[in-house]
Protein: NADP-dependent oxidoreductase domain-containing protein
Organism: Chlamydomonas reinhardtii
Amino acid sequence: MAAAATASSQGRPLALPRTITLRNGVELPTVGLGTFKAGGDEARGAVLAALKAGIRHIDTASIYKNEAPIREALAASGLPRGSVFLTSKVSPYEQGAGRARQAVEGILERLGTDYVDLVLVHWPGVARTPPDSAANAQQRAATWSELQQLYREGRVRSLGVSNYEERHVAELMADPAAEVKPMVNQFEVHPRRPRRELRQLCKQEGIAVVAYASLGCGDLLTAPPVRRAAAAVARSPAQVLLRWALQEGCAVIPKSVRPERLAEWTEPQLLGADWGLSGEQMAALAAMEDGHKYCWDPSGIV
Ligand SMILES: NC(=O)c1ccc[n+]([C@@H]2O[C@H](COP(=O)([O-])OP(=O)(O)OC[C@H]3O[C@@H](n4cnc5c(N)ncnc54)[C@H](OP(=O)(O)O)[C@@H]3O)[C@@H](O)[C@H]2O)c1
């Protein structure tokens, strides 16, 4: 999982990689579509539009309740199953012995597939459990043990976690019962909250990072430094924010239910060598860092 160079020795942009090779050899597409808060017709329409535009990674979760419309979009696309990378997540309500297996079986059924490309533990905490309860760690371990079994059975091609902080990652890496180590950590990353230390730990442990809320849930699209960079490179603010994350070595899963918006997020447009953010432009975006969080905070979960 070597980080790719983003500029030639003459300082010209280089094409960014289309995939990240996970520790088990599975290729994770670096550009995907997020689907949080997209349901029914919206999810079906957005996923079909994304697939038609060439996006080959779809991020969902059992808690998003849109796996069935995603299945319908996949069927309508006519694409072979093997050409699309599907990520789903086991929710805090589904953690623990017995439940995690049932959760993955539900995911497989709703997505209409024999295997999922990536299953993540959505959240380090367990539903209806106080954040400071030791039960969280016990249930996390039980969940991982079941996911590991499903991985060995071939129902899941790769395994990962989401919203895991440094200590949750360290705990899983150190657990001797966790023979299959996490391949991915998906968490909030954008210029205001770049999470350099957590990303460094993931890199050190061979865990690929998938950034979420790259657009700051829409809010960062109007931020003056983003607008200035967009004007300088003649690209949209969304393309600038996604290129920032990709140049930082993350995979991205921006969300839109509007085909005209997601049409800007194809691999050639985001990964091409015909443009890039210079060191100065990256630094100007990095100067936005203030720790602001757009989504929920897992830092209190023991
Ligand atoms: N693992 C986790 O706990 C977790 C947490 C959060 C997110 N995620 C995943 O990451 C994905 C992305 O994160 P996110 O959806 O929270 O935030 P995001 O991708 O940063 O932003 C999505 C929002 O931006 C809006 N938007 C997109 N393009 C726009 C444009 N050109 N102009 C104006 N608004 C625009 C979208 O609205 P429209 O749809 O109306 O275009 C949507 O409201 C999620 O969908 C989900 O798959 C995972």
